[in-house]
Recover the amino acids of this structure.
């Protein structure tokens, strides 16, 4: 697949989408097969697989298991270059542009580049921006970076513009998994004004209302992880929030 082309065409036609993030480390904590089939039933557009820290090496088995159940694209959302797996469809090549840790801006990318070049994976360069979530999340600790202030939309807008000018194809605003507060609507709206790339928003979206707010503010794709693990009833709420924006039928671009 070509994830960037899919998201750009969705954006042009005003279609919103959602991804279910499956964390390989939490696979023992919920019914994985059931979660995948419920996500498919509620028409999740993508599966994201990954996390900042993976301690149980079941990521590959997870991808294979998703593939057995559905054709829904599987996108790797890597924490580092150990998380590359050629059995997925796409990989978000994240450059953590909200931070000033050279290893996550370019260092890991140099190490991964030869493998990625011959992997056959659809590689999507992504301007990855962490936004302060009110408390430290795993990603802010592991990345050793300071997140963007949640109440400074102008700083977020300039950061996103820089990412776009550097040629990054997606803009991803993340409050971090399990964030106490999601990325504020004002900040999403400022970034929406600033860039033409598709915008991905995730972290702490644990209700249909929060999903709706993020989409209304300008998110094209929202990512839901923790919330679904903790509350199976969240999926229909998210699906309803997304489909409330998708009233006109659009051409499928896969
Ligand atoms: C985190 O954007 C993802 O990187 C999803 O976060 O697990 O809080 O939904 P949640």
């Amino acid at each position: 697949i070509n994830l960037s082309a899919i998201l750009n065409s969705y954006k042009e036609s005003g279609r919103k989408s959602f991804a279910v993030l499956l964390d390989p480390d939490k696979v023992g904590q919920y019914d994985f097969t059931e979660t995948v089939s419920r996500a498919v039933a509620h028409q999740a557009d993508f599966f994201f697989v990954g996390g900042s820290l993976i301690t149980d090496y079941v990521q590959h088995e997870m991808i294979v298991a998703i593939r057995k159940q559905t054709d829904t694209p599987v996108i790797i959302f890597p924490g580092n270059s150990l998380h590359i797996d050629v059995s997925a469809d796409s990989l978000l090549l994240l450059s953590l542009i909200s931070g000033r840790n050279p290893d996550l801006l370019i260092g890991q990318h140099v190490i991964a580049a030869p493998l990625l070049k011959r992997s056959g994976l659809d590689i999507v360069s992504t301007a990855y921006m962490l936004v302060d979530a009110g408390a430290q999340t795993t990603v802010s600790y592991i990345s050793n970076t300071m997140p963007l202030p949640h109440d400074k939309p102008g700083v977020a807008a300039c950061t996103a513009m820089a990412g776009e000018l550097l040629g990054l194809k997606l803009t991803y605003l993340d409050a971090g998994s399990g964030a106490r507060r999601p990325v504020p609507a004002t900040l999403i709206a400022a970034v929406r004004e600033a860039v033409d790339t598709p915008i991905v928003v995730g972290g702490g979206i644990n209700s249909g209302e929060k999903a709706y707010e993020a989409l209304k503010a300008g998110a094209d794709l929202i990512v839901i992880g923790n919330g679904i693990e903790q509350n199976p009833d969240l999926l229909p709420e998210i699906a309803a929030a997304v489909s409330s924006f998708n009233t006109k039928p659009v051409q499928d671009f896969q």
